[in-house]
Amino acid sequence: MEFVVHSYCLKGARQEPLLPSVSLTPSSSTLTVAELIRLTVAQQIAALSVQHWLQHLSAREVLDRQYLSERDVLQQARQGAVAMPQASAPPELDVGFEVERALKGFETRAFRVLHNGVMLQSLDESIELSPPSTLAFIRLVPLIGG
Hints:
Blueprint: E1 3-11, E2 14-17, E3 22-24, E4 30-32, H1 33-67, H2 70-78, H3 95-107, E5 111-115, E6 118-119, E7 126-128, E8 135-141
Parallel strand pairs: 1-8
Antiparallel strand pairs: 1-2, 1-3, 4-7, 5-6, 5-8
Helix pairs in contact: 1-3
């Protein structure tokens, strides 16, 4: 079974997407909140890595095409072909570190996890996933002034 986890940031009365929604295919229909967070963070990092890599490549390509100097073009032409520089890979994120940050964030109530509209309270709480389970990570942002 596949489930989608949505992440939102609540800023006053507005609800804004915080991270990309991700699909999970857990090996069991029963998970603890900690397992759900681990799976979700790993998928979010994978989705963000692809998204940012593509954006990085696109930006690099545009900049290189626009600002490749005449000197660089002539030098490459003497070597037989003019090519755009290859973009370097952005640094990889440490999934384990990010999972630990997310687990601590849940424990300190920086964000909440909702399953079918019910707020989950502890990392060891078990949840039963079945279609049409809805899952949401909600980041709470305090209002200015309290």
